[in-house]
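Folding problem:
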Amino acid sequence: MKTKLNAIASALFLLLAPAAMAANVAVITLENGANVRLKDDFTWEYIITETVTQPVQAAKADITEQANGVTSPVIAPATSVAVTAPVAAQTVATPSSPTVNTQVSTTRLTAAALAQPELLGSTAKDGIKITLADTKWKGDKLGLVFDFDSTSNEHVTVVEVEVSFYNDNGALLKTEKLEAWEAIFRMPETYLRKGQHRQSDTIWVEGVNKQQWQKQLISLKIIEIESR
């Protein structure tokens, strides 16, 4: 599949070369239903998220359901008491109601990503591939361990990754930037080199609800690579 995608990306690159270069050149749908974005640098990536717009009240209901499945009790208002003292008639101007946005946009995993979770948890850039290898819990803290594979000619010292966590229904829980790989200054043996397969130390993250993250739905995006 990867060979086929690379061939398609190369062909589109040649066709579009005379025009102004763009980061994304095409989107194709694979036989398994997954959508793939082709880029002008001969790379490609799965499209795993979509933006969903829904009424504010529905969004609030989703948030309530996410809070450990507990809904706050509804307290009935106090009974009104009639006022018997006469009140002078007067005209009161009623202020106009402010415009309220009745819809909110949220980020969710696509149906294809939910049906094929193997599309998640791995990404690559500039010859560096990162994959979620293991998870562990220490109280409320989530520990992440990543595998790294390098085909880069550079000696990599830092790989910064944007990590997005999704609950078991595919709704975005949180996004956090992590230094998934960090070499030690003046210790070349800690550099990530071409042809190596290395594993990171455990990286601890807070703010992920364990009960909502049973399926371990996660997406990774490499945002910075430093090398020597």
Summary: Residues 11-22, 69-89 have pLDDT under 50 and may be disordered. The two ends are 33 Å apart (CA to CA).
